[in-house]
Write a structure and sequence with these properties.
Chain A is an alpha/beta fold and 589 residues long. Chain A is 26% helix and 21% strand. Chain A has 16 helices and 30 strands. In chain A, helix 7 packs parallel to helix 8 and helix 9 runs antiparallel to helix 10. Chain A is elongated and about 85 Å long. Chain A starts with a helix and ends with a strand.
Chain lengths: 589, 589
Amino acid sequence: MEQFHRLSRNAMHTFAVWSPKAEQVSVVTDEGEFSMQREDRGWWRVAVASAGPGTRYAFRVDGGSERPDPRSPFQPDGPHARSRVVDHSEFRWTDAGFQAKPLSSAVIYELHIGTFTEAGTFHAAIERLDHLVDLGVTHVELMPVAEFDGDRGWGYDGVDLFAPHHHYGDPGSLKSLVNACHERGLAVLLDVVYNHLGPSGNYLREFGPYFSDRHHTPWGEAVNFDGPYSDGVRRFFCDNALMWLRDYHFDGLRLDAVHAIVDTSAIPFLEQLALEVEQLQAHLGRHLVLIAESDLNDPRLVRSRESGGMELDAQWSDDFHHALHTVLSGETSGYYADFGAVSDLAKAFQQPFLYAGEASQFRRRRHGRPPTELPAHRFLAYMHNHDQIGNRAAGDRLASGIDADLAMVGAALVLLSPYVPMLFQGEEWRASSPFQYFVNFGDAELNRAVREGRRREFGEFGWRPEQIADPTDEATFQRSKLKWSELDGAEHSQMVAWYKQLIELRRRIPALTDGRLELIESECDDERRWLLVERGPIAILANLSEQPLELPMKPEWPTHVLLASKPDIRIDAAARLPANSIAVLGPEE
Amino acid sequence: MEQFHRLSRNAMHTFAVWSPKAEQVSVVTDEGEFSMQREDRGWWRVAVASAGPGTRYAFRVDGGSERPDPRSPFQPDGPHARSRVVDHSEFRWTDAGFQAKPLSSAVIYELHIGTFTEAGTFHAAIERLDHLVDLGVTHVELMPVAEFDGDRGWGYDGVDLFAPHHHYGDPGSLKSLVNACHERGLAVLLDVVYNHLGPSGNYLREFGPYFSDRHHTPWGEAVNFDGPYSDGVRRFFCDNALMWLRDYHFDGLRLDAVHAIVDTSAIPFLEQLALEVEQLQAHLGRHLVLIAESDLNDPRLVRSRESGGMELDAQWSDDFHHALHTVLSGETSGYYADFGAVSDLAKAFQQPFLYAGEASQFRRRRHGRPPTELPAHRFLAYMHNHDQIGNRAAGDRLASGIDADLAMVGAALVLLSPYVPMLFQGEEWRASSPFQYFVNFGDAELNRAVREGRRREFGEFGWRPEQIADPTDEATFQRSKLKWSELDGAEHSQMVAWYKQLIELRRRIPALTDGRLELIESECDDERRWLLVERGPIAILANLSEQPLELPMKPEWPTHVLLASKPDIRIDAAARLPANSIAVLGPEE
């Protein structure tokens, strides 16, 4: 591809870069150095006759070192080397007319390109798409693909936010993946990180005031969304979002950790972003969504703008996860201390924030605000996600640590929840691979700091060094790859069948996706560990204990079993459920 | 008073203090040291038989030094010494039945206790209240009175936020001042500073996590409104607000610089405060208001909660001030660069934020958001306030730097504006006293730093050291005191008469206080420097130039002059206005 570009074109190319405080900016190519002209709003520009798609280039600000383009579309040799000109109009799309399903009917599947397949590339992922279609997934969500330093990593250390990571493939192959999804009816979401940049290969500050000295994030300097020159910084991030949606045909973005975007502006960055994406949606005629990861339990993110909100489409609900995780695992350390009762899980079916103003033991303060009158579709529910697995000492999946029967119950509670369900890669077959934290920066010192930091962090919770996967060891990365051969095993294929049945049931019964939280009723017993959830004509009965149980039946309930995780479930005047089982009752169809 | 307390009472007193991380807390009085018991939510308590009103005391945390009570009701010997027990129920109020006027009909008068009178005390201020009543003022606003280090200062360096500054008087004399206001029909607002604490005498951090390491303010550590233990910190500040309103009968609070209260919580501190004050209002049966000073141009502060706002009652409008100040003074440096045209001033009559999303040259970014559909009563307008005078090198008033005729025009534009007008002490007679920045910390090194910081700051704008008033020189404080004898001079008393006429007109004509910005129309000419504002049946015509002008008259306008700043104004087919003059036309009454 690259060679083709280099030989076939001899077009004029205009280089442009924002550097509002620079005295002098130039672009360097193999043909020489070209002085750029200052234009308005801090932009510099020059047209170079010898440049075109494929041309390698870098910028030089005020006579400093060569630096890659902050908006580089591709970094074939990593974040420290020269950028490459890309012509996005060259790709031949075959997805005309594709529209993503609404979030209200979505089943999202989170995957990480590097570990989803053995090869760990965009192209290799295409081969596994039919499995997702077969499963019933509607939306694929890619963990961040922006260029980061090193040959492996989760992607949250991205530094060239407009460039796909070169170890995953080139811009064309990412487009091929999106195109292949669309051809199969799958929408594609992309995880983007706008709250900080990675620690290695970030040259943005040499170009302009991208960072704030007034706010901080746990991962480094906060982005300047509200200080002097923040209009230009906002353009950078908004244009990044628009680029992925427009040039790569993504159907939406997942916004990483928006609680770390501290912004006191009257029109916050996230609201501006939502407005601009709305405008792009109208222009392109394609449904686009923005989904936030947020630790704030603040409904303002997804409320309408007329009621003072930012009107993002949805946000992750960690409270639902934590309520489910603690009931299934019995874990209570760290932030799980705030959860653990079956009654928390029952409550989580009726309100997406368990902490909606209540005092949190873990946070040592009140937390959250009631998300009054918002439909359930504004929230995502999941039993696993990359963080909830990978941010454990051993990166072990919940479903692997618990009984398979209980994992089936967990899957059912997610897929029959009122929220938009999300799965993490391999969960559908109870994959044996962990998803451990791995990095491999070009800088050995930085790798050492990450390794030791992780040992210290988990050491404080009583883990011994040998129990903590070394994030910088290549084996940690290899171990985290999915083993697709597992799908052939009976136990694994039974689990896949269970997921398919659940997704199919969710699709069939309107009450399961109506989003109307106010219609849901629940009962539970924390002693005996059972949970009943009524969703319109559907009753979900779960035995979360190690003993068989008789659960109360309401006379008006149907006795017809739509789906059950075990064969020996019996329903008549009472419901008799074996240990760790779940049944869904509903009218005969 | 103090002696009376000490001798007359021998009641049991319960000491209480919040110190959530302490291992051990005790209270020290003249009678000895008493160990406190840990109770819930980080509170420590002990009942001491020998203590009662008048008892001097201090706390000792984990065996450290004696420290004053963070909630000390009085510090008779300054912020480093022992606190004194106060029984708020002892004061004999005679203001039963008093209710503050609504903000929509208010004229606010900002004053600084230390310089309002020669004596600079609460008691001395009482003697001047009749002048304010005569002027037509409805609300007195006291600059901060909380205990700060030193014998003089503006009050924004408060450290004992529950104690009135001992150089102004004791708790009883502050209550006497409020009571005396109420007896005269004047409401009283208090300026409170919740965004930081002063640099000297602040011992809060020894008691608990009052400060945040994640946010910063220009004046020091930010208050911890959203981190661990922030519930207790919020209680401290909410209880402070409730205390002034309940125990001192204040009718409202002015919240200093709320833009420096960085708080990412789903229920922000300011919203919680507004709710708690609303509850107190219901409980006391008295009208209470919260008014924010904000640099954010964010209508969320005053919007209703159902539309996502915090529902404060009003906020200061610096944009109106700057638009007026620059037109009257011709100044363009610093933040005045964003203003200056007569058309800005015309616009300011129709929208309280001139920057409602527009790019600001001074801020180097877009700023603000449209305050759509909010009534004008949510915003305060002023020609002077303590900051806009005192934060100048020489602390000189605008009205003293310009022609008296022009000062009359400025006063009219404020008092006939749709917003809640506010005056600064002495403005009504064009007082000759400046209002300079003054401090006198107990710490010589700190004084030196303030003095040099101010020289450096203004030096950058080209001021020579001798032009910059030394904030630590006592003469600077003395110079800033009002000279009430000036009122006897003819020029000064004419100015007072003008203010009285304007206030009286504002009270008489409903259209002037209807708050309906959408009904206002304005025209202007930046070349010839005139401004016309239509407010229902009223037309305001201002000649802001040094030449006599003929202004266009609309045929439907009344030709009756309700008020004019100069005698030789003539209205017929055209309006002929002398240089620097203003006329108000309206129906004959």
